[in-house]
Design goal:
This protein is mainly alpha-helical and 190 residues long. Helix content is 79%, strand content 0%. The protein is built from eight helices and no strands. The chain has helices at 3-7, 12-31, 34-63, 72-75, 83-108, 113-132, 135-155, 157-181. Helix 2 runs antiparallel to helix 7. It is elongated, with a radius of gyration of 26 Å.
C-alpha cells in the first residue's frame, strides 16, 4: 500500500489506523517532550513484546510443544541499508538542498523583483501565522488536511476547479496591474 492509497482512504481500516496513530503522536507531543513520548512508546512496545513472549513460553510449556521463539521470523529479516540505498537517498537530499539554496539565493539577492516581493509578502504573512499557531499546531492541521482534502477534492472536483479558476483569473489580473505600475517588474517571457 502506498501513501496515496492511505490519503484517499482506499482501505478505511489502514487509513484510520495511520491517521489516528499520527494524530495521537502529535497530540502527545503537545503535552509531553519528544524524549518522554519516545520513552513511553518504547516502553509500550517492550511491554507488548515481552508479554507476548512470556505468554507463548508459558503456552509452549503447558502444551509441551517446541515452536521456538515467537518472533523468529522477524529476527531473521535483514534490516540493514545497502550502500546503493544510502547513496540514492543522499543524492536526492543533495539535489533538493542545492535546488533550495539556489532558489533562496535568487530570492534574497533579488534576481527577479516580483518573485522577491512575493517571497517578502509570504514571509510577512508567516510572521502572523507564527504569532497565532505554534509548529505542532500547524503540523496537526497539515496532517488533518492531508487526510481530508484529497477525498473532498475527489468528490467535488468540478466545483472546486471552477472556483479555483475564478480566483486564479482575479489574482492574475491584479498581479498584472501591479506589474504594469512597478518599473522593472515586468516578467520576462520564458
Amino acid at each position: 500500500m502506498c501513501a496515496i492509497d492511505l490519503l484517499y482512504w482506499r482501505n478505511v481500516k489502514q487509513s484510520g489506523a495511520v491517521f489516528g496513530s499520527v494524530l495521537l503522536l502529535l497530540f502527545s507531543l503537545t503535552q509531553f517532550s519528544v524524549v518522554s513520548v519516545g520513552a513511553y512508546l518504547a516502553l509500550a512496545a517492550l511491554s507488548a513484546t515481552i508479554s507476548f513472549r512470556i505468554y507463548k513460553s508459558v503456552l509452549q510449556a503447558v502444551q509441551k510443544t517446541d515452536e521456538g521463539h515467537p518472533f523468529k521470523a522477524y529476527l531473521e529479516v535483514e534490516i540493514a541499508l545497502s550502500q546503493d540505498q544510502i547513496g540514492k537517498y543522499a543524492d536526492k537530499i543533495l539535489l533538493y538542498s542545492n535546488t533550495c539554496m539556489k532558489e533562496l539565493r535568487r530570492l534574497f539577492l533579488v534576481q527577479d523583483l516580483v518573485d522577491s516581493l512575493k517571497f517578502a509578502v509570504l514571509m510577512w504573512l508567516l510572521t502572523y501565522v507564527g504569532a497565532l499557531f505554534n509548529g505542532l499546531t500547524l503540523l496537526i492541521l497539515a496532517v488533518v488536511s492531508m487526510f481530508t482534502m484529497p477525498v473532498v477534492y475527489e468528490k467535488h472536483q468540478a466545483q472546486i476547479d471552477q472556483y479555483v479558476g475564478l480566483i486564479r483569473t482575479q489574482v492574475n489580473s491584479v498581479v498584472g496591474k501591479i506589474q504594469a505600475k512597478i518599473p522593472g517588474a515586468k516578467r520576462k517571457e520564458e
